[in-house]
Amino acid sequence: MARRGEANNRLDDAARAGWLYYVAGRTQDEIATVMGISRQSAQRLVSLAMSERLIKVRLDHPIAACLEAAAGLRDKYGLKYVEVVPSDPGSTSTTVGIAEAGAAEIERWLKSPEPQVLAIGTGRTLKAAVDQLPPMECPQHRIVSLTGNIGLDGSAAYYNVIFSMADAVKARHFPMPLPVLAASAEEREVLHSQSLVQVALKLGAEANVAFVGVGELGPDAPLCQDGFLGQDEMADLTKAGAAGEICGWMFDHDGALLSGSFNERVASVPLPSRDKASVIGLAKGRRKYEALRAAVKGGIINGLITDEATASYLLNA
């Protein structure tokens, strides 16, 4: 117990030092004086604040190249909303930059005084974005999950983010109490007929905005990594012309939903009408190129948060 208390006290000190350094603009010497510690201790506390992710940085200065790329994507693909963030050539992360931009856009919607229905997909990028949200009180809004939150083995899906988001922003939330994929089209119909599921389906259709990840296909695709799809079935889908997936819904290289048995098994809430809602995809990186190109070409999404390198590919595709 004593060790836990000491750890909490050190994090409290780190948070204080981080606030003084990044928000108040104090030097490390000034922090040392204010906190009654050595300069070396102040430096270590500031570093601890960063390593423990107590400090979250948002860049507010618009970068001309990013703004130009965003305008080009809006014009080329008829998108409602585009945010392009700088690329980091030395980073292998698929979330850094777009997670922070996604959090800022989600926060903007949450700050609306008018009641909104926010539909949320799943995946690593969305989880990273939701982790960036500040604590908020949003009782006027409703959040609905677009995907099931149950894995094939009956466990909760790790990258289903609706619960952590609802906990952060204190809004009413409506999970989709289903597996990502049903065993058959008939089973999906039975599952969708349940009253609790009907509530989620209705809210999804009424959503004002949806935030979704865009999944690539192949043996290393998220659906395979997370155990929802076997390698043989993935190979069959790519042979049938599938280029990407959003909330489990498979689409081809022109951005049209695939016909056939797979999409008939997807238990996810259908994406809201792009005529009425903003459906914003968060994705970047070479592995996402083809899936993103198909998604914007076919109008599966009408909003995009990505980075410069991916925007350049989409502008020249």
List keywords for this structure.
single chain, 317 residues, 7-stranded parallel sheet, 14 helices, 9 strands
Can you put this structure into words, describing what you see?
It is a single chain. Helix content is 44%, strand content 16%. The chain has 317 residues and is an alpha/beta fold. The strands form 2 sheets. It has a 7-stranded parallel sheet with strand order 1-9-8-5-2-3-4, with helices on both faces. Strands 6-7 form a two-stranded antiparallel sheet. The model has no long low-confidence stretch (mean pLDDT 89).
Any idea what the shape is? globular
Structural class comes to: alpha/beta
- Helical content stands at 40-55%
- Enumerate how many helices there are, as a single number: 14
What string gives the helices and strands in order?
Answer: HHHHEHEHEHEHHEHHEEHEHEH
Rg computed from alpha carbons, rounded to a whole number of angstroms: 21 Å
Largest sheet: 7 strands, parallel
Order the strands across the largest sheet as they lie in space: 1-9-8-5-2-3-4
Low-confidence stretches: none
| First-to-last CA distance | 58 Å
- Give the overall pLDDT as a whole number: 89
Give the tally of β-strands: 9
Question: Per DSSP, what share of the residues sits in E-state strands of 2 or more residues?
Answer: 15-25%
